[in-house]
Amino acid sequence: MRAFALMLVLLMSGCVSPVVVDHRAGTDYSRYQTYAIDPPSGDSEMLSLDGQRVQQAVKETLANGPLKAADKDQADLLLRYQFTPVERFSGNTFSFGLGFWRNNYGLSTSTPVEGETEKEYRLQLALVEPGSKEVVWQATSRDTLYLEMNSQHRLERINAMVTEMFKRYPPGASAK
C-alpha cells in the first residue's frame, strides 16, 4: 500500500505545469507570423540584466518557432514581459507537548511563529496586438526568481521559464 501511495504522489507531482497559460478565445493564431519585443517602460533606457536575459531567451526560443522577429512597426504581435512580485513566508516554530489520558494531566509549551517575508518574482509574458493593444496570449511561470540567486542560476531559470512558456504557443500546442 505504501508503494502505491508513493507512486501516486510522484505521478501527481509530475502533472503540475511549470507555467500557467491563458489566451483570448476565438482568435486565429495562424495569422500571427511576426513579433517584436516591447520592453516595460522601466527597461526602455537601459535594460535590466534580467530584462536582457528574458529578451535573449525569447530570441533563442523563437528562432525556429512559430513567430519570427520583426521591427516593432512591422510586427503582428508585441511581446511584453514583466516580473511580478510575490511574497513567500519563511518561518519556524518550536512546540513540545506531553499528555496523559487518565487524570487529565498535561504539559505543553510552544513559541510564536518566527520568520520573515521574502520577495520573489514570477516572469509573465504577454503577446499583444499592436493596433488594439489587446492581449491575445499570456503565460506566467510558477517558478520564481529571488534576489540572492547568482547570475548563472538566474540565466538558467529564465531560459527554462521562457522555453516552457512557448511550448504552449500557439494555444492548443502541447508541452513536449
Overall description:
The protein is α+β, with helices and mostly antiparallel strands and 176 residues long. The chain has one domain (16-166): Double Stranded RNA Binding Domain (2-Layer Sandwich). It is built from 3 helices and 9 strands; from the N terminus they run H-E-E-H-E-E-E-E-E-E-E-H. It has helices at residues 2-13, 49-62, 151-166, and strands spanning 19-23, 34-37, 68-69, 77-92, 95-99, 106-110, 114-128, 135-141, 145-146. The strands form 2 sheets. Strands 1, 2, 3, 4, 7, 8 and 9 form a 7-stranded mixed sheet that branches. The chain has a two-stranded antiparallel ribbon with strand order 5-6. Helix 2 (49-62) runs parallel beside helix 3. The two termini are 32 Å apart. The relative contact order is 0.21. Residues 8-13 have low confidence and may be disordered.
List keywords for this structure.
176 residues; seven-stranded mixed sheet; two-stranded antiparallel ribbon
SSE blueprint and pairings:
Elements: H1 2-13, E1 19-23, E2 34-37, H2 49-62, E3 68-69, E4 77-92, E5 95-99, E6 106-110, E7 114-128, E8 135-141, E9 145-146, H3 151-166
Parallel strand pairs: 2-3, 2-4
Antiparallel strand pairs: 1-8, 4-7, 5-6, 7-8, 7-9
Helix pairs in contact: 2-3
Structure summarized in a few sentences:
The protein is an alpha+beta fold and 176 residues long.
